[in-house]
Amino acid sequence: MNKASIRRQKRSTKPLPDPDAPRAQQYDSLAPELMREYLATEVDKKDLKVAGVWALVFHFFLFFIVIPTARVEPIPLRDQMATTIVKRYKPPAPPSRPKKRVKKKTSPIPIPDPTPDDPEPIVDEESEVEFGDPDAEFDVGLPNSPPGPGGARAGAVAMGSGGLIAPIKMTEVLPEYTPAATRAGIQGDVYIEAVVTINGGVTEPKLIRGLPDDELNKRALEAVAKWTFRPGYKDGQPVPVIALFTVTYRIH
Known about the structure:
The chain is of the alpha+beta class. Among the domains are: 3-66, no CATH class; 138-249, TonB (TolA/TonB C-terminal domain), CATH 3.30.2420. The protein is 31% helix and 19% strand. It has five helices and ten strands. It has helices at residues 3-13, 23-66, 77-82, 179-184, 214-224; strands at 138-141, 157-158, 164-165, 168-171, 188-196, 202-209, 228-230, 232-234, 237-239, 241-249. The longest helix is centred in the N-terminal third of the chain and has 44 residues, at 23-66. 14% of the residues are buried. Mean pLDDT is 69; it is low at 75-91 and 119-141.
């Protein structure tokens, strides 16, 4: 219980003035009491103000005592660097390429030379091979065999006979190389004997000496059969003539 409560309790226990007494007497008896009540009220107000001020001061210091200032601890830079991870990109391995099969070179099977005593054509291994028409040369020479008894050869005149005007070539057909002969590098001369008729055509071509390639020999025979000539003359008359033709295959 505080002092103000004790004072109120003391004041409440004192007797009140007599109501039957004169009014002036009643006022005189109440004056000291009213003064004391007023003074007590002022003291109570002053005490409340002082108490309020002390309460504010107390709570102000209590706030700083109970709630300390928060302190942020700095993180060492070394610890931050320790957590750094550097990743290096590793490209995937390239897919393995399939191994190429190396084709073995097959050596051409040697063909027996039908004329072993004759000189063989020289093949230039460093020459550039081109597929197409060969650079063919055509010669008309003396036949190796005399005129036969039958066919176009009967009554034909051999080249070199006295008084004979030789046939003159008008048109020619060029044989073509085969791919196999081009790859093998086969080249040389093919000798063919045939009859130039009085009409300028060529009949009965016969292989005298060829190359080690049957297809090239065959194409040479077919080409010669398509040639045309101005016929040979003897004693002013056209006569069939047996002649020797040379077809030359060359690789450029």
